Amino acid sequence: MALSCPLNRYLLLMAQEHLEFRLPEIKSLLSLFGGQFTTSQETYGKSPFWILSIPSEDIARNLMKRTVCAKSIFELWGHGRSPEELYRSLKNYPVEKMIPYLHSDSTYKIKIHTFNKTLTQEEKVKRIDALEFLPFEGKVNLKKPQHVFSILEDYGLNPNCIPENPHNIYFGRWIADGQRELIESYSVKKRHFIGNTSMDAGLSFIMANHGKVKENDIVFDPFVGTGGLLIASAHFGAYVYGTDIDYNTVHGVGKASRKNQKWRGPDENIRANLRQYGLEKYYLDVLVSDASKPCWRKGTYFDAVITDPPYGIREATRRTGSQKEIPKGIDKCPESHVPVSLSYHLSDMFFDLLNFAAETLVLGGRLVYWLPVYTPEYTEEMVPWHPCLQLISNCEQKLSSHTSRRLITMEKVKTFEDRDQYSHLLSDQILPYQGHNSFREKYFSGVTKRIAKEEKSSQE
């Protein structure tokens, strides 16, 4: 039986990396531009072929102007599990939808895309010739066609067991490509100012998309580092701001992170990074500040808070304070007090971050951050929560056999009240997450065991 193709159906060709991040990115962008997913579209798994219902071609094009997880999008004309099913599906597609792209004054070409199999030129020509029943009246132009059509064949995910025939075959009109080239053009390897933990460019853009960053937004990073996350948001037209406790990083002084370079140069700083990409006009400022003691007046300032807090591995978790207990009843430190650097437990850091986001985000604004976890002990109950914030997505990126970090996206759904600041302390969820205060010890414990195992293997 032929698979009919409803109107406004599109085929999305996805990249095969960061698989868990793909669905939240596409959902967030569709929501940003006025589209949405249906419940039947939740089961894509690892497949690179996704069929979406999108209200209009304009929304499809806007989606592709932002996504780094998708390669291309096509207006879907036909779909089948065999060539015969595909042809029946194409014959059922409304001719009036085809005619604008097939008339005699138009030029076109047909491309073949296969996943997990390589076809010979002869096989490709045979597949194209089989579409002669379509009402093509224009001329073929292989160099600069007005319209591009594609046959896409899916041979499954197992490279060690490639079937003779495809699992699915699609035919559609190419609409637009995604923004995959941003990963290379914004590569950290080419960046003017980097640090030990500068965020990968692709992940930076994914985070901005999860945060639904758009033009004229104000985006804040409380653990700004060298500003990699600010760059991604500024690329999408947002004004960016940040803080960090490390004076040397904020001011671009001290030892360099690059190999074969001892000290940072006179113009190695966050502003210079944005200037490198022509984004300096979106740079508001960066301050030396302690994230545990926000310096903001009460109010809603930010459309998104996007950040990568330190985990205590490459960068220390630090806050300012005093080794001496300040007497009760005294709100401020004595004038003679000199702040010192203290340890900042992960559980305290993330609850401070959630409180800060709940207080300073606009309603509907998003918090996007990385949560490090010790994989053998991880459960969903360990993800910090807040009464003003709703969990949108939780995606894993493996760091090692025993550790990973999870990209958490939350949306502000309730106006912050003073009583919300400590409500999380009453939750049972705080107890399991406090176990992650020893993440650093567990991380290095696993590293030590792995090194010992590798040394033992090399001696045998």
Automatic annotation (TrEMBL):
Positions of the Ribosomal RNA large subunit methyltransferase K/L-like methyltransferase domain: 190-320
Protein origin, superkingdom: Eukaryota
Keyword tags: Cytoplasm, Methyltransferase, RNA-binding, S-adenosyl-L-methionine, Transferase, tRNA processing, tRNA-binding
Cross-referenced Pfam families: Tmrp11_N, UPF0020
Enzyme Commission code: 2.1.1.214
Record-annotated tRNA (guanine(10)-N(2))-methyltransferase TRMT11 N-terminal domain positions: 9-180
Compartment annotation: Cytoplasm
Entry annotated with the keyword Nucleotide-binding: no
Main enzyme class: transferase
Catalytic activity: guanosine(10) in tRNA + S-adenosyl-L-methionine = N(2)-methylguanosine(10) in tRNA + S-adenosyl-L-homocysteine + H(+)
GO cellular component, one term: cytoplasm
Keyword RNA-binding annotated: yes
One GO MF term: tRNA (guanine(10)-N2)-methyltransferase activity
GO biological process, one term: tRNA processing
Its job: Catalytic subunit of the TRMT11-TRM112 methyltransferase complex, that specifically mediates the S-adenosyl-L-methionine-dependent N(2)-methylation of guanosine nucleotide at position 10 (m2G10) in tRNAs. This is one of the major tRNA (guanine-N(2))-methyltransferases.
Subunit structure: Part of the heterodimeric TRMT11-TRM112 methyltransferase complex; this complex forms an active tRNA methyltransferase, where TRMT112 acts as an activator of the catalytic subunit TRMT11.
Membership in a protein family: Belongs to the class I-like SAM-binding methyltransferase superfamily. TRM11 methyltransferase family.
Protein name per its UniProtKB record: tRNA (guanine(10)-N(2))-methyltransferase TRMT11
Lineage, broadest ranks: Eukaryota, Metazoa, Chordata, Craniata, Vertebrata
Gene field: TRMT11
